[in-house]
Write a structure and sequence with these properties.
Blueprint (H helix, E strand, L loop, with lengths): L9 E5 L2 E5 L5 H4 L6 E3 L4 E5 L2 H10 L4 E2 L1 H23 L18 H12 L2 E6 L5 H14 L5 E6 L6 H9 L4 E5 L4 H10 L7 E7 H4 L3 H7 L3 E5 L10 H11 L3 E5 L10 H9 L8 H8 E4 L5 E5 L2 H9 L2 E4 L10 E8 L3 H19 L6 H16 L1 E3 L5 E3 L3 H15 L4 E5 L2 H14 L2 E5 L5 H13 L3 E7 L14 E4 L6 H8 L11 E8 L3 H10 L4 H12 L5
Parallel strand pairs: 1-5, 6-11, 6-14, 7-9, 7-10, 8-9, 10-11, 15-22, 18-20, 18-21, 19-20, 21-22
Antiparallel strand pairs: 1-2, 2-4, 3-4, 12-13, 16-17
Helix pairs in contact: 3-4, 4-5, 5-6, 10-11, 14-15, 15-21, 20-21
Length: about 575
Amino acid sequence: MAINKHSARSLTLAEDTIKLRCLYEDREAVKQVTGYRWNKAEKCWEFPIRPEVYQQILQMLPGVFVYPDVKLAVNKVVERENQVAQAKVAGWEKVKPVEPIPLRTKPFNHQVLAYNLGLTLPSYAVLAEQGTGKSCITVAVTGRRFLRDEIKRVLIVSPASVVPVWPLEYKTHADFPFEVTPLEGPVAKRIEVLERWERDAEKLQIAVVNYEGAWRMEEALTKWAPDMLVLDEAQRIKTPSAQQSKCMHRIAKKVNYRMILTGTPVTQGPLDFFSMYKALEPSIFGRSFTAFKTRYCIFGGYENRQITAYKNLPELIRKAHTIAFRVTKEEALDLPETTDQKLYCEMETSAKRVYRELVSESMAELHGERVVTAANVIVRLLRLSQVTGGFVKDDTGAVNRVSEAKQRLFKEVMHDLLGTGKKVVVFARFLAELAAIEDDLDRWQIGYSRIAGDVNMAARGEEVRRFQQDKDCRVFLAQTRAAGLGITLTAADTAIFYSLDYSFADYDQARCRIHRIGQRNACTYIHLLARDTVDEKVMTTLQNKRNVADEVVNNWRNYFQIGR
């Protein structure tokens, strides 16, 4: 390496990039280096701080003068990633935490390893499949960084359906002082909450916001000054040009610690990595999407602008995994046999109005009855459950659409699950819900089987066989009571409950369709719930292993309460 600081070629360090100043005739050689970007204002080339990039520059431009801080920065990256690589090789079978884990609940071995890596890496990707405990890992890492006095405030950005889940995760797992606030409702109200939120050095302060809302209140979130950013279901920002992606890129530059969480880092192709890693750690793939595509894509077609294939994929995967922890349910043998998840949707204003009117009518009718029976209460609760699923019958018996909130949530969840290549079982109580789901699957051209009350018994065996054996049959649609007994659906290890049956026996039998002999994986059950509705009340009753009919005679008013 040259030592002449007056060389026409020099490498300097600036923020999170290496800056190269060189001769005009060097430009073609420079473009052979991974992750290049031309800085027009400063008239220099910029590169990510990566050891392989550093070595490429030295090889392509002999005699370049390197300032000492460049080499120090590169060596620091090498040392940190070597630690991570060694920990991964050692595995999690006998892993011990590098520092006490600040959790009330006992973590599984793979979570301990993920925790260790999260403390080693300031920018960290948890590429863990749904049901492997990404949120528990996040609570542990943020808690330890708080106790280390590295962070005071954390911003978690997630899909809207997951925002209400995060306070429950911290309440369940955290063994350290914390204050978590979900930012919901009108943007002006969210901003007001942030502005009134005073700092408290004794507690880790966590704000949770959805992606769609975050970019509309970027200034307020930046002013709140988080020390750490967590992007949950980070595939939501896989499109670099999207508003919410650009917002996350900007906020990420202003924090010292970053995490992304996703079980499906690639849903449409290798290009999905770029935007997520631009927010997480731009040194991995650089900040130029054009340079990234040049490195990993083969172009052809009209005017040579269409991506026809990919190249250098082993390199891409290796680089992505230098700061990532990947685990699937098949690998995490220490997982429990079953995991339950609750995801929430917010009904539209018009649907809430219909729901409230039905509640008022039902309350008035029940108050007017001399004797309140379970059957009478159940009839009225069913009408409310139909509304949360999006449909209601009018006086003529016709079914009318009143909400699409739960169907939007379903689409979001299915997009992620199908992106993993897995099969999925979907349980729904009402035929109108099944019909809406079928419309979606037909539009997506996803193969499915179906069992409901209107499918004759002779045809049901073939529907099951096709799901179990045909790789192109990705989804099994089931009306809960019709498909709750006697069938095996172990081709899937994940089931979605679009709506809930009121019988614990029927609900439990439905769960057993995937969790039975022949199932090799841990099973995940995802429940789609409309917030502040009967959905949540029924879910609580079923979790307590009780039938709704056994609860409603003495407690019927509780089921008709609006809100929590």
